[in-house]
Amino acid sequence: xxxxxxxxxxxxxxxxxxxxxxxxxxxxxxxxxxxxxxxxxxxxxxxxxxxxxxxxxxxxxxxxxxxxxxxxxxxxxxxxxxxxxxxxxxxxxxxxxxxxxxxxxxxxxxxxxxxxxxxxxxxxxxxxxxxxxxxxx
Length: 137
Fold this sequence. Notes:
This protein is of the alpha+beta class. Helix content is 38%, strand content 27%. The radius of gyration is 32 Å and the shape is rod-shaped.
């Protein structure tokens, strides 16, 4: 038996260790960038959902209080709800149908980033003005 002709490898060479370290570093960096992107997307989605809920709440409030019967527009903020990051605007326009108005509520971030507005609109019935029957007062 000849044992001198074969050399046994014991462990990693310096180049193999360096390549393994670089690969692990690239993998960890990729995972961290993925988490950062995920966190940013979640924050954007959360803000968008919050604005949509505020717009729906304001629309319901406008319809319930009868403010939708008047044409024109109103605006304000949500400081009464503890939200100072958003403002709202209500626009009421007549529709093509009799006794129906189109009510549009737009919620915008107060930081000026208006490409992320939340808009809710719908039709609201407007009670016709009562007239005296037969022309008598």
